[in-house]
Structures are given as structure tokens and as C-alpha cells.
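INFO batch 0412 | record 1 of 1 | parsing
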Amino acid sequence: MSAQITDGTLELVQRVIELNCDGELIVAMSATDVARALEGSGLSESDVERALTELVRQGELETVEGGYCLTET
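INFO prediction complete | emitting C-alpha cells
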């Protein structure tokens, strides 16, 4: 895939974290966990990592111990 991350990729990665992190039992997902959840989607782990970095930059996600979680609003 190209170095360009599309809005669809960003939305997909964010949605995976939203659906999997309940804030109690699972508070964060690693890049590897997200990539594993998206296995077969055509996204590489490096694509997922770039999307996660961009979502953190945009303020949609934050980094915590164990990986990434949704930014609390």
C-alpha cells in the first residue's frame, strides 16, 4: 500500500479500537492487536501503525500502557 493513509483506513482502525476496548477489561489495543483484527483486509501492520499515529496526532486516540485507546471526551 502507499504511504498515504485514507480516511477510510483511519475510520476502520478507530472503529476496531472502539469495538474492542470497553474501558474495563480491555483498556487498550496494541498495533499488533489491531493489525491482527484487520487480517485479510489488505492493510499491513505498518499501514495500521501509520493510521494509529495519525489518529493520535488528530486527537482521536491516545497512547496508554498497553497500546492505544479512544480519547476520553
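INFO post-check: Helices lie at 7-20, 31-37, 45-58.
INFO record closed
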